[in-house]
Every structure is written in C-alpha cells, then in structure tokens.
Amino acid sequence: TFDNVEQAPPDAIFAVLNAFKADTDSRKINLSVGAYRTDEGTPWVLPTVAKVEGTLKNVNHEYLPIDGNPVYNAGMRDLALGKDSIAIKEERTCAVQMLSGTGALRIAAEFISKFHQSKTILVSTPTWGNHNAIFKRANLDILPYRYYKAETRGLDFEGMIADLEAAPEHSTVLLHACAHNPTGVDPTNEQWAQIAVVMKQKGHFPLFDCAYQGFMSGNLADDAFAIRYFVEQGFECLVCQSCSKNFGLYNERAGCLTAVLSTKEAAAAVLSQLKILVRSSYSNPPNHGAAIVANILSDASLYKDWEDDLNTMSGRILSMRQQLHDAIVAKGATQDWSHMLKQRGMFTFTGLTPAQVERLTSEFHVYLLKNGRINMCGVNSHNIDYLANAIVEVTK
Ligand code: PLP
Q1: Has residue 4 been placed in a domain?
Q2: Number of domains composing the chain
Q3: Angle 32-323-393 (CA atoms, 0-180°, nearest 5)?
Q4: Within this chain, do residues 121 and 255 fall inside the same structural domain, yes or no?
Q5: Which of 120, 176, 207, 334 could form a disulfide with 171 if both were Cys (CB 3.0 to 4.6 A apart)?
Q6: Do 179 and 258 fall into the same domain?
Q7: How far is the CA of 244 from the centre of ligand 1 (A)?
Q8: Which position among 78, 156, 209, 223 bears the catalytic label?
Q9: Which among 269, 298, 327 is the end of a domain?
Q10: Any idea where the Aminotransferase class I/classII large domain is (predicted)?
Q11: What is the domain range of residue 87?
C-alpha cells in the first residue's frame, strides 16, 4: 500500500547535529542546537527545577483535564500578560496547556484556520523553520513579510511596515515576542508601537510566538513587552508559550496557548473550541513538566529563585556575545562584528556565507546552520579562542 511513499529529507537542524556527533575531532564545536549549555558544554537542569522536582507530591498517573493543569495555565497566562493585565481583570482570557511551544503553534494555527475570517498568515523572512511547516499543515496561506536586512544585519523596519500595510486586511501576523529566531533582531519598543498602529489600521490579528521569555534578558516583563503592549492597545491575540528554554524543560513538552478576547463570553467560547481541537489531536497533555512549572509560578520564593536561574542563563549568553566579539576583533577581523553585540537572545545571525559556513565545518569542525545562525550557548571559555580564530580565518 505504501510502496510509493517517497523518502523525505532529514530535518536540517537534526542533520547538523548528527554530523557533529559523527565527527571524532576533539576540537569540534556544536553551535547548531537550540538549547542552553553551561560553560562546560553540558545541559543544565535549573536548580529551581531540580529542587521542585524532588518535592512533587501526590504524583499518580491519572489523566489531566483536556485543557491541562489549571494552576499551570493561570501561572502561564500571568507570565505572558502580567498579573495586572486589564484583560485578566475583565476575565476575557483563556489559557490551555499545550505540548510545548510547537504544540501551541499547531493548535493556534488550526484554530485560526477554522475560525478566523482570513486564512492569510504573515510570517517574517526569515523565521524559525518549523513555522512555515506548521502553518502549511493547518491550511493557512503564508505570506512572507520583510524583516531582516542583510546590509545592516538588523531590522528592515520600513520593509516590515510596508508589507504589513500591503497585506490583505484581517490577516494574522506571526510576531516573535522577543529574541527573534534565527536573527536575534527585535523591534525596539517604539517600533513595536508603530507596528501596532499599522496592524490596528489593517485589522490584523497578532499571533505571538513566545519561546524565550526571561531567557533573553533575565527580565520577564521586558521580554513580554510586545505582548503586553498590544493587549493594552486593545488587541485580541493568541500567545504560544514554551517552557523549553526558560525552564530548561525541553523534553517535558510544557507549553501554553493563552488567548485574549474582547469579551468574557468570547473567552469561554474560544476555550471550549480549543478543548475540542486538543481532544481530537492528543486528548490531554502530560503532567510532569507542567507540575514543576505550576509549583514555581505559584510560590513567591521559588519564583524568585527561578528568576535567578534566568539571570544565570541570560548573563552567560551576554557574556559570550561580548567575549566572542572581542576575541574576533582582537584577532584582526576584517569586517564589522557589532551585530554580535546588538542581536539578542540565544542566537547570532552571523552573516557568514554558505561557503564560509562550509569551511568552518570541513576545516575547523565547527557545526552551525547553513544560514549562518549560531547558538551562543555553544560558545564557552574552553572553545572561544579556537572559535574566534576559525571565524577570522574563514572571513579573511
Ligand atoms: N518557537 C520558536 C521561535 C523556537 O525557537 C522554538 C524552539 O526552538 C519553538 C517555538 C518551540 O519549541 P518547543 O516546542 O520546544 O517549545
């Protein structure tokens, strides 16, 4: 029956990881993974997560409700919108536990496809590779909007605004809440305000992908600025949240879809429909990761400890940005590397060409994505000197 099924290509990111694993050179460096690493190059269980994990009580293996753990959902909603959000006060929000950020995007896409008047979704060029695949599977019509300007290695703000203006009215616009993946380029707060003006004029609907809150700056409110600003401006929106990076819970698949609607009745109706989408997709979500997060978010002291963990991670990334930048410059870089300091979050969009990337890998055993994206967490005090040399060599 399935004799004619064609072999699909491997996932680009996982393919780089496999090549890294197969390399036997001791100097090899993996800058491709989308996960935090310590200065020793190892994964990090957040101390607050480890502490809570040891105290989880009453753990049985009963089903969770379709929409997940209610304490978790309330905590995640507050995290995205801010406890004092007008939308929460007016009871016009709902939040549903999801299979991490990817699961939230998938259910959000299906919801939009089924219920929104427009099937058009605007997606930045470039964006996280999975966005396009997810939206395509939900039968949305993808329209790219300009975002990254290669000449400045920064934001193409004029291009973005022009494309939002030119798009059909009532389109959905996918916005990275902070720490844009793969570019590390975010709008300033003033630019967010202008984006909101255009989106309001056009009746566009914001779909936020929030995968790096707190992980970017260590400050949870700063990293949620865009979401909270849009809600203050009276927008309805969907927010896809991931606990992979900011809680280090990658394989626990803890995420959330928070919705802001214009009325309490709409919030109840949307919740009921989201539950139907969940029920027919995977019935109900897993417990463990969400239970850990629920404990942390609902306890002031643990919350504070978690913020310290976030500062540890974001601080190390910032320090690696500065140190790698300085080392490349000190070794006689022939081009400007200030974008390494300006870009934010886990990734630097280096501007390295595919040929330079190829040389880094084949000659220097440095593994990164073809588009030149590097994960700053893969940089550490042990490999920084070697890496800076390699980058200077291939860019001479
Ligand atoms: N969105 C963006 C922009 C991401 O970078 C990622 C992970 O790398 C995700 C969503 C989803 O991650 P997860 O499904 O692990 O929460």
Answers
A1: no
A2: 2
A3: 65
A4: yes
A5: 120
A6: yes
A7: 7
A8: 209
A9: 298
A10: 27-391
A11: 70-298
**Is 209 known to be catalytic?**
yes
Model pLDDT for residues 178-188, shown as the tens digit of each residue: 999 999 999 99
Both tokens of residue 247? 């809680």
Residue whose pair of structure tokens reads 């934010």 in the numeric block? 344
Over its C-alpha atoms, the chain yields an Rg (Å, rounded) of 21
Whether residue 266 is found in the same domain as residue 360: no
**Number of neighbouring beta carbons within 10 Å of residue 47:** 13
**Rounded distance, CA 390 to CA 328, Å?**
9
Task: Tell me the one-letter amino acid at 195.
Answer: I
- 137 Cβ contact partners less than 8 Å away, ≥ 6 residues apart: 106, 109
Q: What is the pLDDT of residues 121-146, one digit of tens each?
A: 999 999 999 999 999 999 999 999 99
- Per the structure block, which two tokens stand in for 109? 């896409």
pLDDT single digits (tens) 5-27: 999 988 888 889 899 999 999 99
Would residue 128 show up in a list of annotated catalytic residues for this protein? yes
Question: Residue 327 maps to which CATH number?
Answer: 3.90.1150.10
Please tell me which residue in 67, 245, 306, 309 is annotated as part of the active site: 245
- How far the first Cα of the chain sits from its last, in Å, is 55
Q: Which atom of ligand 1 is nearest to the CA of 34?
A: 8
If we measure between CA atoms, which residue out of 213, 221, 286 comes closest to residue 243? 213
Q: State the distance from the centre of ligand 1 to the C-alpha of 332, rounded, in angstroms.
A: 36
Query: In Å, what is the CA distance from 318 to each residue of 148, 192, 204, 206, 244?
Result: 21, 23, 34, 29, 19
Alpha-carbon gap, residue 40 to 71, rounded angstroms: 35
Q: For Cα atoms 75, 138, 179, give the angle at the middle one, nearest 5 degrees.
A: 50
- Ligand 1 atom nearest 254 alpha carbon: 16
319-365 pLDDT tens trace: 999 999 999 999 999 889 999 999 999 999 999 999 999 999 999 99
Closest CA to 319 of 389, 266, 392, 379: 379
